[in-house]
């Protein structure tokens, strides 16, 4: 089992570009590839080589809660199984600076994950969760929806960028199917 598709989650459009909810886009944008709009998948799509393997990259251009349309379409077309998919997304339950990897599990209230689970017919796909913190854990009074749709404060952006860099460093292990090694490295990174 290896990763054949990396999906970055976010919302399309310049007004959302710098918001916390676009952490998945931020990671995919740092990979060496040119993403092109593909109307068949309603997404930006590209290919790159990681660990000497060809990997598809996808940034759905639907809004977050309809991400499954793009993910389901590309998986059906290229015969990519759910366990070969890595979805990169923002995670409220993890503090900025931390990234966690897991296979399956609930959506945790994340509407993008809910829609992908519905489209794939299973929860058994990989998730790379980029911590953005929760407004309460960061001592903010914002509601969650407002929080994720705003840009991180300066003291949060640096740690989020670090978590993305640490995540990029383990992608070769994931593409090679070395999931325990990738988790060990990512989860012990300080």
Describe the protein's architecture and organization.
The chain is an alpha/beta fold. The chain has one domain: 3-Layer(aba) Sandwich (Rossmann fold). Helix content is 35%, strand content 22%. The protein is built from six helices and seven strands, in the order βαβββαββαβααα. It has helices spanning 23-29, 67-78, 111-120, 144-148, 154-175, 179-188; strands spanning 5-8, 36-38, 43-50, 53-60, 85-91, 99-103, 126-131. It has a seven-stranded mixed sheet, sandwiched between helices. The radius of gyration is 15 Å and the shape is globular. The record marks 90 as: Stabilizes the basic form of H active site to accept a proton. It holds the Pfam family Pept_tRNA_hydro. Monomer.
Which properties best describe this structure?
6 helices, Rossmann fold, alpha/beta, 7-stranded mixed sheet, 35% helix, 190 residues, 7 strands
The main β sheet shows up as: 7 strands, mixed
**What are the segments in which pLDDT stays under 50 over at least 5 consecutive residues?**
none
Domain tally: 1
Under the CATH scheme, the architecture is: 3-Layer(aba) Sandwich
* Share of helix, binned: 25-40%
Quick one: overall form?
globular
Q: What's the CATH first level?
A: Alpha Beta
Q: How far from one another are the termini?
A: 28 Å
User: Any idea what the radius of gyration is?
Assistant: 15 Å
How big a fraction of the residues is strand?
15-25%
CATH topology: Rossmann fold
Strands of the largest sheet, in order across it? 2-3-4-1-5-7-6
The ordered H/E elements are: EHEEEHEEHEHHH
What's the oligomerization state?
single chain
The CATH homologous superfamily: Peptidyl-tRNA hydrolase
């Amino acid at each position: 089992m290896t990763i054949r598709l990396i999906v970055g989650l976010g919302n399309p459009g310049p007004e959302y570009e710098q918001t916390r909810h676009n952490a998945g886009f931020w990671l995919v944008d740092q990979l060496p590839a040119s993403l092109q709009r593909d109307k068949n998948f309603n997404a930006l799509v590209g290919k790159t080589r990681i660990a000497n393997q060809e990997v598809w990259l996808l940034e759905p251009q639907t809004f977050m809660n309809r991400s499954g349309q793009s993910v389901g379409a590309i998986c059906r077309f290229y015969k990519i199984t759910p366990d070969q998919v890595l979805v990169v997304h923002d995670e409220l339950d993890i503090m900025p600076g931390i990234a966690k990897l897991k296979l399956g599990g609930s959506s945790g209230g994340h509407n993008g994950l809910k829609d992908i689970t519905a489209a794939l017919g299973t929860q058994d796909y990989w998730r790379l969760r980029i911590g953005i913190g929760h407004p309460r854990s960061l001592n903010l009074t914002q509601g969650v929806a407002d929080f994720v749709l705003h840009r991180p404060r300066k003291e949060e952006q640096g740690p989020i960028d670090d978590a993305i860099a640490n995540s990029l460093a383990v992608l070769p292990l994931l593409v090679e199917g070395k999931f325990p090694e990738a988790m060990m490295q990512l989860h012990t990174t300080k």
